[in-house]
Specification:
The chain is 78% helix and 0% strand. The chain has 81 residues and is an all-alpha fold. Helix 1 packs antiparallel against helix 3. The longest helix is centred in the last third of the chain and has 35 residues. The chain is rod-shaped and about 60 Å long. The mean pLDDT is 84.
Length: 81
């Protein structure tokens, strides 16, 4: 175990890699012009949209929150020392 509850470096590397993957997967096929047929298909594919939202918005937001919290804790710990 790491001293004083510090998490291992690979955990942060994994979080950054997961964040980059979520952004790449979630935004790689974004088109701001959508034909009507595609809209109808999207309505029928609502379960896929839920997964898309999880990967595109929620997972990156949670990962950014985790990294920000850990970064702030690291900065506070360095100032105390």
């Amino acid at each position: 175990m790491h001293a004083q509850g510090h998490r291992p470096w690979w955990l942060y590397s994994l979080a950054v890699a997961a964040l980059a993957t979520c952004i790449w997967i979630g935004w790689s096929d974004v088109s701001f012009w959508i034909p009507q047929a595609a809209v109808k298909e999207a309505v029928r594919a609502a379960p896929q949209q839920v997964i898309q939202i999880l990967v595109q918005f929620i997972a990156p937001a949670l990962l950014l929150g985790f990294l920000a919290r850990e970064g702030a804790a690291h900065i506070r710990a360095r100032r105390r020392a």
